[in-house]
Structure formats: C-alpha cells, structure tokens
C-alpha cells in the first residue's frame, strides 16, 4: 500500500509525460499523447504563418496603427501647417468638445440619423418583404426594382435627391402641386426644419430594398408548419406575424440593423455632395464636422478627437453584434 502511494505521488510530481488516463475502452493512455497533439498544433500554426501573418501585419499597421496615431494626435494641440508636438499630451480637445454647441448638435443629429433611419428602413423593409412573400405577380421584377437603389453610391443618390427636393422644379413639389396639395410643397433642403428629415427619407429610399431582401430570406426560412399552427390556433394575420413570425426574424433584424447603422455613420459623402462642408447645425453630423475641422479649418487635433468619438460609436454598434455571434458559437 505504501509502495502504491509513493508511486502516485511520484507521478503527480513528474512532468506529466507518463501520467495515465483511463480510456473509454477500459485501457490507459499517457500524457505523451497530449504533448504530441500540442506539437501538431504548433506545427500547423507555423506552417500557416506565411499565409496570414503578412496580411495581419499590414492591417495592424495601416488600420489599428493609424487609429492609435489618430488618438495620439487628438491629445496634442496641433493645428495649421506645423508639426504636432507630442511632448505635452492632454485631454484638452475632448474638454473643448463637450463645450462646443456645434459638436453637441452634430452628435444629436448623428444619433437621430442612426436611430430613425435604421428603424424606419427596417419597418418598411419588413412590410415589403411580407407583401412579396405572399406570392404576388411579377415578384422578381418588383424585387429587382426595389433593390436597385441599394446598388447606387451615396454620390449618385445625393445628386438625384437634390433634384427631387428642388423647390421649383423638383419631382416632389411638382407632384404635390399637380395633386392640388400646394400647402405641402416645402423648401425641403433650404428650411432647417426639414433638412434632416429629407436626408433620412432619401437614405431610407436607398436602403429599404436591402432590408426587403434580408427579411424575405428570413421569412422563407421559417417552416410552413409555424404558419399553419398559428392559423389552427385561430390567430389573426396581424397576431400571427406579431407573435409568431416576427420574433423568429431576430437574427435578420440584428444583422440588417448593424449594416444600416454603419452606413448611417458613413453618410458623410451623401451630405457633403448635397450641402458641402457646412450643412448647417440642423443637418450637421459628426463625420462632416470632423472633415470640416480637419481639412477646412486645419484643426487637426480637434478633428482627430471627433474621429475618435466616431470610432467609439462604431464600436458601440458592432461590439454587441460580435459578442452575440460569439455567444452563439458563430465566430
């Protein structure tokens, strides 16, 4: 018995190479097998390095390195044509930012654009997807026409809607006047009250087709038995979609919402083409303000600080989605 105890203690103090484990077939195996597995994994990692390491280094340098450098610049007071002074770093630009009424207005507009545009585009896309899912005639034609604006760039969309919103010859006001609704014809881009709403409507027109496709794929992946079971239970059409179908579209809603929010944060070129670098406080967003401060006013440090805020907002949009994907084991 003492001999057996000493043998067990010796095994525990050893390097593990001779540690025995019970196999499922009743035999034993030693820890050397695990060591061989680790060596195999290490070999695979070393063999794959030439394929992914150069790309990873380039991404790290030009993406995350640039972000880090941008953050460093935001801690300086760099402006004008000189060089940044890295000897005295502070959060002064962020303090100025919190007292800047233009920054607060741009932040508010960015959040409004982010939330309202995303919500309206999702709802409209869902309704259109439900309509198309009923097996309407010319479904493919309708789907193609509705998706077509999504293939356009922000520049083309901005020019098109600049013409549509024209006060005297724009398509919207001309149509309203033809219908006898002159009182609804407005100066959509000139009046600060309607400027942001006009931007949201144009972006919704461009992206609701994308939501249609995402939701249509989700609807057609739901088994017919779920529809039939709801009908057998006496659920009305509205109740069936609200209580049975829409909850099963949670993944489609999440992925579409993330894409829409990212595009909302990238709406700089749309607003720049439509209004230039100064769209006014009612339609200014952080991306346009960042460009204006950095490249028009040459306030490089302040522009960098605004860019860091934009980066934090993008992380706030993407991080929860990545975490949910990780929890589902899809990463």
UniProtKB/TrEMBL annotation:
Which chain regions cross the lipid bilayer?
A: 51-72, 111-132, 144-164, 196-217, 249-275, 300-323
Q: Which domain of life is it from?
A: Archaea
Compositional bias (Basic and acidic residues) spans?
14-23
Q: Which InterPro entries match?
A: ABC_transporter_permease, MetI-like, MetI-like_sf
Where does it reside? Cell membrane
Residue ranges for the region (Disordered) are 10-29
What are the record keywords, sorted?
Cell membrane, Membrane, Transmembrane, Transmembrane helix, Transport
Please give, as recorded in its UniProt entry, the membrane topology of this protein.
Multi-pass membrane protein
Question: One matching Pfam family, short form?
Answer: BPD_transp_1
Q: What residue stretches are annotated with the ABC transmembrane type-1 domain?
A: 107-323
Q: Does the keyword Glycosyltransferase apply?
A: no
What is one cellular component GO term in this UniProt entry?
A: plasma membrane
Family note: Belongs to the binding-protein-dependent transport system permease family.
What name is this protein filed under? Carbohydrate ABC transporter permease
């Amino acid at each position: 018995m003492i001999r057996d105890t000493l043998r067990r203690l010796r095994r525990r103090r050893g390097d593990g190479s001779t540690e025995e484990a019970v196999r499922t077939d009743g035999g034993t195996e030693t820890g050397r097998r695990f060591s061989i597995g680790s060596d195999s994994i290490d070999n695979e990692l070393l063999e794959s390095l030439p394929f992914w390491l150069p790309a990873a280094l380039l991404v790290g340098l030009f993406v995350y390195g640039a972000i880090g450098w941008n953050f460093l610049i935001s801690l300086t007071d760099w402006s004008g044509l000189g060089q940044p002074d890295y000897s005295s770093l502070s959060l002064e630009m962020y303090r100025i930012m919190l007292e800047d009424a233009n920054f607060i207005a741009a932040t508010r507009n960015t959040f409004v654009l982010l939330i309202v545009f995303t919500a309206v585009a999702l709802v409209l896309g869902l309704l259109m997807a439900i309509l198309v899912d009923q097996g309407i005639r010319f479904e493919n034609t309708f789907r193609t026409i509705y998706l077509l604006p999504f293939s356009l760039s922000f520049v083309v969309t901005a020019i098109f809607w600049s013409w549509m919103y024209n006060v005297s010859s724009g398509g919207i006001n001309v149509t309203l006047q033809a219908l006898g609704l002159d009182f609804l014809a407005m100066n959509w881009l000139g009046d600060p009250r309607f400027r942001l709403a006009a931007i949201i409507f144009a972006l919704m027109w461009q992206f609701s087709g994308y939501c249609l496709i995402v939701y249509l794929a989700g609807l057609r992946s739901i088994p017919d038995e779920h529809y039939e079971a709801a009908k057998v239970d006496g659920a009305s059409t509205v109740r069936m979609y609200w209580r049975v179908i829409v909850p099963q579209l949670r993944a489609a809603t999440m992925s579409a919402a993330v894409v829409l929010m990212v595009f909302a944060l990238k709406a700089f070129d749309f607003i720049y083409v439509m209004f230039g670098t100064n769209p006014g406080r009612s339609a200014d967003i952080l991306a346009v303000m960042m460009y204006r401060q950095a490249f028009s006013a040459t306030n490089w440090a302040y522009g960098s600080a605004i860019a860091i805020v934009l980066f934090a907002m993008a992380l706030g949009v993407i991080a929860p989605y990545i975490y949910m994907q990780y929890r589902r084991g899809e990463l």
